[in-house]
Design goal:
Length: 318
Amino acid sequence: MNKQIPAYVLTGFLGSGKTTVLLRMIEVAKAKGMQPIIVMNELGETNVERHLFKDIEMVELLNGCICCTIQDDMRSELEQILHTENKGDILFIEGTGVANPEEIIEALTHPQLIDRVKLQSVISVIDASKYVDYQSRFQSAKEVRELLKQQVTLGSLIVLNKIDLTSDRLLEKVRRKVRSGKSEQTPIVEASNGLIEEEDLFATRFKWDEMNFHHTEEDEHEHHHHHNHSFQAIKVSNVGKVNRVKFEKWLKKHDEKLVRAKGMIQLSETPKAYNFQYASKQLQLTPTSSHEEFVMIFIGIGLNKEELINSFREEVVE
Ligand SMILES: Nc1nc2c(ncn2[C@@H]2O[C@H](COP(=O)(O)OP(=O)(O)OP(=O)(O)O)[C@@H](O)[C@H]2O)c(=O)[nH]1
């Protein structure tokens, strides 16, 4: 029998810090001489974070969710990679921020993969600074609440991330809320910027017998419905020069519906290229030398594509 490749699934809501944790895991794995393979699923048409993973074997599943239409794509791509001679030593799968991890886990039970992949842990990353806020903000959107719940319920390790942005009082509330939905055995660790002890991150924790797959045709329908209509990823290409101050104002104006944004831009103040990340209502700009195109991805709920793009071009671009 083929040797099984150890696998880690990273789950968590939009902008919670999955990629940040993944980068940390890759660093550790590489330092141990391991060759990682990454499966990265993005809601948008472009993976604007590809440059963060230089020299790494990556399967990019874009413009959809592993949960729905591209579950088969993941299976076949993985099968292919795992059959090649120089396959990696460790596999990381990062779902989109709106993926139900159950579907990813389920994909690994496919007859062609089950003997090849050994799921070690489902790492559930929570933005501690926004957890409570999201629960009230999405109170009326049942499927989003369910999703947030599933991402925690199925975690073998829970990471309360972004504690640098979380007050002590709020953190205590989040601890209580998260703990109430988990068994005592599931570790909950706290972190800023995904800095978590290596042993915690890499421990083998996942147990198949604790999974309970129960899909009816009705569920399937519900699921597709949810992903097609709740969250949208809007791509803006050929972004002109962005005025930073106006951009921040604009983001603030749209922060009810716009949950996450990322991309590569040029600011009007300087000719440099910047990678930008907008999550937890915070804008982060990092100068970068590697950019293929200036593109932005906006992710949110109930967004009007045309209006959003028009207002961005009118109010932010110079
Ligand atoms: N202040 C602060 N920022 C963080 C922390 N962890 C991650 N970030 C920032 O939050 C933003 C989103 O982080 P990612 O790791 O890309 O989040 P993600 O869960 O992969 O996001 P999606 O692409 O939406 O799935 C980035 O700007 C990170 O640098 C943290 O602990 N504290």
